[in-house]
Structures are given as structure tokens and as C-alpha cells.
Amino acid sequence: xxxxxxxxxxxxxxxxxxxxxxxxxxxxxxxxxxxxxxxxxxxxxxxxxxxxxxxxxxxxxxxxxxxxxxxxxxxxxxxxxxxxxxxxxxxxxxxxxxxxxxxxxxxxxxxxxxxxxxxxxxxxxxxxxxxxxxxxxxxxxxxxxxxxxxxxxxxxxxxxxxxxxxxxxxxxxxxxxxxxxxxxxxxxxxxxxxxxxxxxxxxxxxxxxxxxxxxxxxxxxxxxxxxxxxxxxxxxxxxxxxxxxxxxxxxxxxxxxxxxxxxxxxxxxxxxxxxxxxxxxxxxxxxxxxxxxx
Length: 294
Hints:
There is one protein chain. The chain is globular, with a radius of gyration of 19 Å. It is of the alpha/beta class. The chain has 13 helices and 7 strands. Helix 2 (38-54) packs across helix 3 (65-74), helix 2 crosses helix 4 (79-95) and helix 3 packs across helix 4. The protein is 44% helix and 10% strand.
């Protein structure tokens, strides 16, 4: 059994967002929480590939092992559920191809510089990556909804290449302070359904907690619609904060920005975005050979 009790472990290390490997402790965590063993990985990948070949929606697609592993991990090696989510992902990509193509670093980087969507540079002690969304910084006139969709595809799918994120999932902090004149008209049923369906049913991400700060009219309108479609499990993981100070019940101060009371001076991840949006990395985004036939 893995153990991170401060009584038995002298130091609880805070890991960086970018790692590229899974430390021994988190390998044990994957075994306990996700039922992951070398045998399960081998068998799961083999079964997933067989199902891909037999299904009419995926039979002409060729997925990398690393990509299939994300779906096995998020569904704790339940092969049926993992394949169902993979198929939902493939169908979504076919249905809205514009969101998975025509990526431009010059456009997407504005989300980082304007602090609209940010991966924070440090993880929670339990290994979760932290995504910060600051709605009030989004200007639909300069960054249209379609570019927002592309940005989320890049941010989520490229972050999922990290084994630490696959195993430990993410915590989201969503600052919903908003100008309803700018944002409310974009809270359409179609856009809100895409958020629900894409995030919960297609993207192989483990959502550990969602923290809502600075409630707004725009968010209340969107939450009224979206909440009805979210799983009960996910709804229970949504926490509302009247003040950012209560975020520290869930996060150490060291990992949060100063304007939320934390100690983080800077969290601009432009260098990370530049790396993951290189032509080589974008060419293998979301499964490596999704558009190639066998």
C-alpha cells in the first residue's frame, strides 16, 4: 500500500507540472487506485486494439499505445468503459474537425498572456495538475469561441501526455467573475453541451476537484443548464468559494498565484505552450495516427 502520511514520510514533495515520468510512489498509487499492473497494461491494450478494429466508428483509425493507455487509466482498466469513451472521443473529433485542426500558436498563446487559461507550474502534493481559468480575462471579440475550443483541445490533450496527469488527474480553479454583456450570449445550449460532453464523456481526464470562485450572473445561468447533465460524482466534487481564502483548505499557498493569496509570483506557461504546439507535437496530438488508415 502506498503511504503519504506526514507521520511516516518526512517530506511531501511538490512536483512540477512538466515531468515526463511517473515516480515510484505514484506507480504504487496507480496499482492501488487504478488496478494497474504490467499484465493489465498489456492485456488492456490488446483488447482495446481488437475493439477498435471491430467497431464501425473506429475500424479505420490507428491509435498509439500511449494514447490508449490514457483511456484505460481514466476508466481503471474497465475495458468496456474505456473503449466507449475512446469511441466518443473519435466521434467528437469527426463531428467538429475545426476544433482539432488549424492550430496557431500566435492565437493560442494569448490565453496564456491574458491569463484566460493557465496550467499552473506546480502540482498539488497528491500529484494533481492545476488548471486555472479566469473568465473575466476572456474577450470574445479578440479571441473567438472557435479559438477557445482549439485552445482547450491543446491544453487538455497535451497535458494528458504527462503520466503524472493521467494517474493523478487535475484540479480546476474557475474564476467566474464575468461581464455578462461580453459572455452571456456565448452560454448557448450547444456550447454548454459541448463543454459537458467533451470534458466528461470524451476527454480521458480524471477530474478530482472543481473550485468556483467569484460567482457571477453568467456562471449561474450556465451552471443551471450544465449541472443537470453532469454525473452525481462530478457534481459532488464542485466546491464554491465565497472568498479565495478558502482555497487553502485544498491547496498549499506555494502553488497558487498571489492575487488569490498564494505565493506564486508568475505562472505564465508560454514556453510549455510553445513546445507542445511545435509542428512535431501537433502532428501527433490526440492519438498520433488518428487520420491514417491501417
